[in-house]
Structures are given as C-alpha cells and as structure tokens.
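Incident log, structure service

09:12 report received: a user says their structure output differs between two submissions of the same chain.
09:20 pulled the input from the user's history:
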Amino acid sequence: MGFYTRSSDLAPSSEPQNGRSPAKATHSRQQATWGAGARTGAKGLSRHRWLRSRYQGWVLPIGLLIAWELLSRLGVFPPNLLPAPSTVTATIWGLAASGELVRHIGITLFRVVLGFGVGTLAATVFGALTGYSPVAHRYLDPLLQALRNIPSLAWVPLFILWLGIFETSKVALIAVGVFFPVYLNLMSGIQNVDRKLVEVGKIYRLSQIQLIYRVFFPATLPAYIVGLRNGLSLGWMFVVAAELMGASQGLGFLLIDGQTTGRPAIILASLLLFALLGKLTDSLLAALGKRLLRWQDTYISA
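09:34 re-ran on a clean worker, output below:
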C-alpha cells in the first residue's frame, strides 16, 4: 500500500495552543517586553528630571562662588573688602574648631524658634478671629495694619525700655516680625473661602466646629503655610535687629563684631550662615507643609 502524507501534516500547526496561536503568543511576549522597557525608560527619565530639577538651583550659587574665588585670586577684589570664599570658609572652620560657632548658632536658633512660636500663636488667634468674624475685623484689623508699618528697628528702644536687654526683648522683637505675615495670610485665606462651600456645609447642618474643620481649615491651609514661611524668613531678618540689643552671643553679634573689628571674613561668614540656616529651616517647614497638605487630602477623601 502506498503511504501518503499531506503537506499540512508537516507544516507547523496553526491551531490555538492553550487558547492562543503561536503568532499571538509571540506578539504578546513582544508587547510585554516592550511595555516593561517603556516603563523602565519612563522611570529612568522621571528620575533624571527629578534630579535635574532638584539640583538646578545650585548651579547659579556654585557658579558665582567659583567666579568670586577666581576674581579674588586674580586681585580684582581687594582682600580687605571682599575676601575669597576659601578665606571665608577657613574662617568658619576656625570658629567651628574653637567651639565658638556652635554657641553662636545655637543661641540664634533658640531665639528664632521661640520668637517664631510666639508670633505664630498670636497671629493664628488674631488672624482666625478677624477672618471669621466681621465684627472683630472692623475693630482689630485697622489697628494691626497700622502697627504693621512700624519699622523693625523702631521697636528696639521700646522693647529695651519695657523688657530690658535680656532674652525676653529679643524674642518679643522676633515675634513681632513673624506675626504680621502669618496674620495677613490666615485672615485673607479665611475671608477668601468660597461661600458656596459654607452654604453647603450649613445645608448639611454642620456645627460651627465641624464647619471650621471640614470647610475653613482645608481651604485656608495652603495660604496659612505660605504665611508661616514668610513669617519665618522675617524672623531671621528680625533676629539681627534683636541681637543688636546688648547681645554677647549669636550670629548677629558675630556680624557686628566683625564690623567693629574690621574683619570682613567674619561679616561674610555670618551672612553665609544666615543664608544657609534660613534656607534649611524654610525647607523643613515647606516639607512639613506638604505632608500636612497630603494628610488633609487623605482626611477629606476619607
């Protein structure tokens, strides 16, 4: 008998295997591979963008420091007026090695943190009161707006007369600087809350406490955080004026000491430390504000 074989018996079967044809299975594997590669590439690209955006702010300061160092080395900037960054860094290192720098930074940080706390507490009370109550706003806001325009140094003789030259007067002056930005941002934030949200809350018969936590607090929090950051920056500015009031320690005292003794490296070191500490505390406050906003979003969605 003859033996007959069909060509279809020798060719690869096109019937589905496990529900899929080989061509479709190969295509699915290719799509999975390409998808994984695309996700990896997107993750690497987003990481690259994050690193670039994070460190872009350092490009200009580092470039200025390099240019400053080169021009100082070339003699363009006289060393008795504008010493090189390396000289300023050596001055900071010398102060740190002697233990003097830690003492100055510690007392300045203590004054700023305490003044910031006192000023923020008072500003929160008055800002919430004048923002929430029209009657309180009419009575209190004109007086506070007038006090806001008094220069910081104008408070110094009055605080020395009332509180002496010790820590109380210094903390009070810093608290005054912190108070007004926090007060203004909180008051305006409460006043700018969408009244439709308030009406919806009243329709749902929310109590005054529930209305504050469910409507006013979430709507006002971003403006309040901005006010806190502005108040902190003014607190760092006011601490210099505060440390003019008979201080024997602190970065402000170090700044004035460098002026009276004719040491520009000390002056520049103090300014650099003020800038670094101000940036560090502002970054910490901004990070805390972001966490608080995320918690608020989670709380509202829950």
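09:41 both user submissions now match this output. Likely a transient worker issue. Closing.
09:42 reviewer note: DSSP finds twelve helices and no strands in the chain. Residues 23-77 form one domain.
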